[in-house]
Each structure stands twice: as structure tokens, then as C-alpha cells.
Amino acid sequence: MANKFVLYNTLSRSKEVFEPIFSPNVGLYVCGPTVYGDPHLGHARPAITFDLLFRYLTNLGYKVRYVRNITDVGHLENDADEGEDKIAQKARLEKLEPMEVVQYYTNRYHKMMDALNVLPPSIEPHASGHIIEQIDFVKTILEKGLAYESEGSVYFDVEKYNQSHHYGKLSGRVLDDLLNSTRKLDGQDEKRNPFDFALWKKASPSHIMRWNSPWSVGFPGWHLECSAMGTKYLGERFDIHGGGMDLQFPHHECELAQNVAALGHESVKYWMHNNMITINGQKMGKSLGNFINLSQMFDGSHPLLVQPYSPMTIRFFILQAHYRSTLDFSNDALIAAEKGLDRLFEAHRNLAKIVPSAQSSIDVEGFSQKCYDALADDLNSPIMIAHLFDMVRQINSAIDGSATITAVGLTELKRLMNLFLNDILGLKPEATGRSKNADAFAGAVNLLLEIRQEAKLKKDWATSDLIRDKLKALGFDVKDTKEGYDWKLSI
RNA sequence: GGUACCUUGGCCGAGUGGUCAGGCAGCGGUCUGCAAAACCGCGUACGGCAGUUCGAAUCUGCCAGGUACCUCCA
Predict the structure, then answer these.
(1) Is A430 part of any domain?
(2) Whether the predicted interface score ipTM is above 0.90
(3) Where are the alpha helices (DSSP H) in A144-223?
(4) Strand B at less than 7 A from CB of A350
(5) pLDDT tens digits for A7-66?
(6) Domain C-terminal end among A247, A274, A301
(7) A95 and A149 within one domain
(8) Residue A172 CB in 7 A reach of strand B
(9) A328 CB below 7 A from strand B atoms
């Protein structure tokens, strides 16, 4: 742990040195998906951002417990069916059991995350599996006098809380402003103040997902699950809480207040928020209807896409921007990322072709240091990737013979490239599927290229170019090398 | 309306008060039978206007444009 890891804390609005509360253990909580729809490009951002963090911290030697929840109850829909649980509504729509919908989209989420090489968290708790813990949480807040019951629902008393604490400290909100800008919602008259939020909500007759509680048959409030599950699995104090910037308010603000109300102190030391992915400069979101599903990205089926993009291209695209910047989607940017990543992988593979020298012109140690420095500076993956590309040039030069590296240096470089590329950035070459089919296929292409070699020896350029051009038309990139030839499938 | 943030070369995207981001695309060269790939070289970019400063794209103010949150949202 030579490098001081510095990360941006939303709470202080500044970069802080990371010091775990109980080193070497690190508690990390990230808001996971609401499983009522197919995962889209927006879901990939936090997943990959915090996957990078998880991998990096683990690599630094920390023992990380990573909790990422599945939200499968509670969140209210805000359209015609106001007040109905999202999951319940979807279930009625598709004539499925709510938990069937939950299971289906959870499976989909896992499948997409797996494709993106996002490591599974240590614990993935479901909100629906922690109703008892959430009810207990509500009870505690009621006992502390910071919540009140009204018509079978329980609301957090924001104004009272604000008398002794600062509601709005995370998001920079001022209570008076909220009073004027809070929108009128259903059930508003049950509340003392419009900005009070539900801890427990009484279920309407049409509401399918419902549980018994001391107050009513209903369901837990929208922000409660993270308070309850974070506390359960990471303790009353833990290190990092992450999520998308759009969750900062009200979700995380409320969560923070709930924890202070129930526990008497804040739970989270560092709050991290990733920025949004935009499309034509506008946030990509479910409610805006401009999102692209991950499966559509992978197969190119969305009308905005001119071609499919592999999971690794998506991952690389996201890592090429800093997590706190917005990232604008475009085909040009994706294609550029795809080509760049290709070059990176190619150099990584070509490491095997380097012949070591007695001297070294490549500064392996400096390279390592620069990469670690970039990560240590608030997870600056774009800078790290820039250093990786600098190394690509040197690797290619070494193959050309215009740069040199010692055997020891080469071994270390191979280790570092594996570490940075595969283990930390989580970029792995797309599976080529070594099968009998593929072997036969490769054999046939090689045979053609052998014939081309013979034609070349006879200076029969017509035949040699014919083979190359026809293969090219079929999607094979053929290139001549000192030893003979090389090829790859470019589609 | 309130609050916060953003505006970098053809595109994407880092960063800093005073030599370099990086990728993609483009141009020139080396190599090649020709290509491809690779390597070498090339772009004097930082929204506008003022101010602070020896010096600002980087700090301050104003203006313009954009975005986010304030409502479920990654």
C-alpha cells in the first residue's frame, strides 16, 4: 500500500486520503438496480466504476466486503398508476408473480454484468428479504421521536430532525428551498411537511407486494432498504457508499438522515457518486425513454447504433472517461474505443514476440509507478489508460527492434500488463471460443494463405492479391510479417 | 424559480498558473512487389468579455450556451 489513495468525497466536496475505519478491512456499499426492467447502458456505469474500485482496493491488499443490493420493493411509480409499486405494476402488466418479474430481471442483470466482466459483490441482498430489518429500523426512528405515524404510514419528520442535525448536508440542499420547490404528491396531506418522506407506506388495495407491520399492511419506504441492509452487513460505520449522482438527492440524503436518526451518528465515511451517461448531451434514462439496453448494445439492434459493440468495448469506453465526468454516447466514440482497445490487446498479445536484450530502453518501473499514481488519484482510469497506450508504442517498438528490454524487465512488464489490463481494469480479450469448428476454420484460412505465400514467391501478384482481397471482403484482415503472414477476423 | 455543475483541437476525453495528456480520424515519411499493421513526424485546442498576475485555457467577475438535481431513476 505504498500509494496514498485519494478519493473525492461528496460529503466534503473535496478529495480526501482514503483511510479505512478498520484497516485492512473495507466496507463498500453500492446502490444496485431496481429490477423491473432490462439493464441499460446507464446501469453499466456504476457497476463498472465500483467494480474498478473493488478490484483496485483488493489489489492494494485490503479485504473488501462489497455489498450491492437488489431493489425489488417499494419504489413508487409516478405516472397514471400513481402510488402503485413498480414491481407490482409490471407484474400485473405481464400477468406474472411479482417475484417472478424480480427473478427474471435479476437474472438478466447478472448476465449483463457477467458479460461486462463485473465481479459479483460479496453480498447481494434483496430489499424484499429484509422487511423485518427495515421494520426494526422504522421502530427505532419512531422511538427516537424523529418519525410519526399517519393513516397507517410512517413518515420521517424532516423538520424536527433538522433542528438538531443538518438535513441537506450531502446534497447541499437548504430546507427552506425544499419547502417551496417540493412537488405535490399523492398522500401529501398525511404528511406534516411536503419534504417528509415515507419510512413505511400503507398499501392501497391494488398493491400486490405487501407485508404486515405494526402500522399497516404495506411496504417499506424508498430509502430504507439501504440503511437497513448497509447496517446489517457492514455495521453502524463503514467506509464507502457509492451510487449514481442522481441518487444523491433525495435517496442518499434521506438514507443519511435515517441512519443518524436511528443510530445517533452517520454511518458512511466516504460518499462516492458516478456521473451519468448522456446521449446527445442529455441524460440517458428510463423515464426519458432514450436509453439503450445492454443487450441492444451487444447485438447492435437499437436504431441509434450503426453496429454492435462488444461488452469489453463498452467497458473500455466507460473506463476511458473519469467516473465523475458525464460521458456522451456516440457511435464515433464507441468505434474509437473499439479500435483503441484492439490495439491495447494486440500489444498485450505481442509481448510474447519480444526478444529480450542485455540493455533496456523501456522504463518498466516508471510505467508501473505512473499507472498506480493515476489510480491513486481518485481512480483516474483515463490517465492510466493513456500510460498504457504509451507502453503500447514502446512494446511495438521493441518488436520492431527500435526499443530494447531485458529479460527481467520483460517478465515484469508482462506481469504488470496482466495486472493492469486484466485484473484491475477488468479488460479481457473477447472469448474466441476454441473449438473443433474454430480449429478447422483457422486451418482453412491458413491453407489459403499458404497458397498465397507460394504465389508471392513466384511473384504472382495477381493471385496473391486476389486471395488477400477476397479474404478482406469476407472480413479477414491479412498482414504480411517477417515470418510470413498473420490474420484476424475483423467482424 | 431554487441549487450545483459543465463548456478543451474534426470526434471522444484528461489535465495544469509558465515544455508533453491519450485514443479515434486526417496529413507526410519509413517499411512493403503493392497493401495492411507497426514505427517516426505533423495540428500552436481550451465558450465570449473584462480583471488579478511578470505570465491564465488553468484564479476572480460578468455574459452566453448546456446539463443535472429539486419526482421513480445508475
Answers:
(1) no
(2) yes
(3) 158-164, 175-181
(4) no
(5) 999 998 889 999 999 999 999 999 999 998 899 999 999 999 999 999 999 999 999 999
(6) A274
(7) yes
(8) yes
(9) yes
